[in-house]
Amino acid sequence: MGCSQVFIILTFLLVFRLHTIQCVSRIKFTNLQCVALDKPFADFAYCKLKALSRDKVALSLRFKLLQVPVNNMSLNVESFKKYNGYRPFLVNVTTNFCDFMRHKKRIAFLDIMFQFLEKYSNINHTCPFDHDIIVDKLILMPKYFSLLPVPAGEYRVKIVVGAYNDWKAVVNVFAQIWE
Q1: Counted domains in the chain
Q2: CATH, residue 25
Q3: Range of the domain at 155
Q4: Residues ≥6 apart with Cβ < 8 Å to 161
């Protein structure tokens, strides 16, 4: 590949990147569903959205761990975009959460997600977890998505949390992005 071809590709990527950044000008949560799959192990104390204004919605949840400490956690994150129903879009990652928290840069999408999630939660350390998992008043901002190619539309992010090789909870977060 010659220098001119590399230049053309880099120019295209830069223009696409700038367009992507401009695409996400407004974003908000539209729905939230939390399901505990193993209630003797853990359950949700609350899982709610609160409208702060027309374009601002805050997400809060508390996942009560009833059998602590938890030393082995798994995480599956999958994103969907709405096209005649929700279709898989961009990401489907399953990882050992304890390893991820030690080496966040290995999975770029989750690293970007946790950079803004850590400010609103107590999920800021590696295993073991011996306390409730709390996310308090998380508000989506367009700047959080400047590194991701996310066009306008309706989205669902499905987060499945497991411990000791068994899925324990599912959280579906719905959001809308528009220009």
Answers
A1: 1
A2: 2.70.220
A3: 3-178
A4: 63, 73, 74, 75, 97, 167, 168, 169, 170, 171
Cβ burial 142-175 (10 Å sphere, 16+ → b, else e):
eebbeebebeeebbbbbbbbbbeeeebbebbbbb
pLDDT in tens, 34-79: 999 999 999 999 999 999 998 899 999 999 998 888 888 999 999 9
pLDDT tens-digit series, residues 134-149: 999 999 888 777 766 6
Per-residue confidence (pLDDT) for residue 76, from 0 to 100: 94
The beta strand positions in the chain, using DSSP E, are 26-36, 42-51, 57-65, 73-82, 86-96, 133-139, 153-163, 166-178
Half-sphere exposure of residue 152: CA atoms within 13 angstroms, side-chain side: 7
What's this model's pTM, rounded to 2 decimal places? 0.81
Q: Return the percentage of the chain with pLDDT > 90, whole number.
A: 44
